[in-house]
Write a structure and sequence with these properties.
Blueprint lengths: L1 H4 L5 E8 L6 H13 L4 E6 L14 H12 L5 E4 L2 H4 L4 H11 L3 E8 H5 L7 H7 L2 E4 L5 H10 L3 E3 L1 H10 L14 E5 L8 H8 L2
Length: 208
């Protein structure tokens, strides 16, 4: 983790958080879509020790979830699977994102979430701080397109196209390598091919 955070290269990094219980092709689709559409250098999958909004029942061990996530992302070296919240001693996203910005000031971060997560985003602890910490990129999910667009209006943030957000992330990196964050919060909705996989459905199949 220290080498990843303190790499001297200036990079555009997409952050995908979650329990990954288990990681699946839907997560991979989201990472690959964001990587290509936003012209990101890396994707960091942040495996949470325990999502505060989810039950511990049927939750695999952190080690097992990290291992499986690394297996399915192995063909894509730009995807890094880590669990920084173990060191941060907190599983709240707003604290995690703030800590990452402090520890890795040379990275131009964007938070990536599925459209289904945006619908219930407003139940997250300190969601306003999250949307003000870094841009948010929302990846379309089956049955959630319209709900996500409506929820996006509640963010009261500037909605950019994916091309505009990609340009914004690049402009955040200055010659001295320190990421410069603009004051206005930004978000974008990335439509296109939607992947139906879900961890809940996979666990249900495994339980049969």
């Amino acid at each position: 983790m220290p080498a990843l955070f303190h790499d001297s290269r200036r990079r555009r990094v997409g952050l995908i958080g979650g329990s990954f219980n288990p990681a699946h092709d839907g997560h991979l689709h989201m990472a690959l879509t964001a990587h290509k559409t936003l012209q990101l250098d890396e994707i960091w999958m942040l495996v949470s020790p325990q999502n505060p909004l989810k039950s511990t029942a049927a939750m695999q061990s952190l080690a097992a979830r990290i291992d499986h996530a690394r297996q399915i992302t192995a063909p894509y070296p730009f995807i890094k699977v880590i669990s920084p919240e173990v060191g941060f001693r907190s599983s709240y996203t707003y604290k995690t994102l703030n800590s990452l910005k402090v520890m890795a000031p040379k990275m131009a971060f964007t938070w990536i979430m599925g459209a289904d997560n945006l619908v219930q985003f407003f139940s997250w602890r300190e969601w306003r701080r999250i949307k003000n910490t870094m841009p948010i990129a929302v990846i379309d999910r089956p049955s959630y397109s319209y709900q996500a667009i409506c929820a996006g209006r509640k963010l009261k943030s500037v909605r950019l196209s994916s091309r505009q957000l990609a340009k914004h992330l690049t402009s955040q990196l200055t010659k001295d390598g320190v990421c410069q964050t603009r004051k206005a919060p930004f978000w974008c909705f990335i439509a296109g091919r939607r992947h139906p996989a879900s961890a809940t459905a996979l666990r249900a199949l495994q339980g049969k």
